[in-house]
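Hey,

Quick one before I head out. I ran the complex with uracil overnight. Inputs first:
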Amino acid sequence: MDKDESISLLADEVKACQKCPLYKFAKNPVPGSGSVNCEVIFVGEGPGEKEDEQGLPFVGSAGKLLDELLESIGLKRADVYIANIVKHRPPGNRDPKPEEVEACWPYLLRQIEIIKPKLIVCLGRHSLGRFLPTIGPISSVHGRCFKKSNQHFMALYHPAVALYNGSYRKTLFEDFKKIKIALKKIK
Ligand code: URA
């Protein structure tokens, strides 16, 4: 089975998933989107209202900023893969509960296993905390690369925090340049 087939089978499983109650409140599952042949996966927290409506990750206002950030380093959505820690929208955009994150986690691990990215970019503290729980607060580690179990990670602020804050926005654009640098260095 090739990567595209594997990822689309996984998406079918996510669509039918009832491992936690989030599916009951969501309009659509949001398994992830992009290229399975990419070097970098971006991982956010969970779908918001627009993502829930469209079944696609990062299509709301944070997603528009993500598009700009990608473009600033010469990338398009189709060059990367974008996913979330949880695949159904938590009602009212609350944080996902630990048991919801736990139930959904194997899907993300399988996406990573299929795609085998050079770099996983953790967007925001929830994503970072799940992959690298002991690394420290995102305010201290953003823009830095880490290696764990032979996998490279980069910590970045979540685009949503930069929407109404010019200084986070500037930091995000600066940090994004480090993605390019990291990808050149990673074998
Ligand atoms: N925020 C996220 O963490 N993920 C999305 O898909 C959209 C907004």
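Residues 44-48, 51, 57-58, 60, 62-63, 84, 160 surround uracil (CB under 6 Å).

Talk tomorrow,
K.
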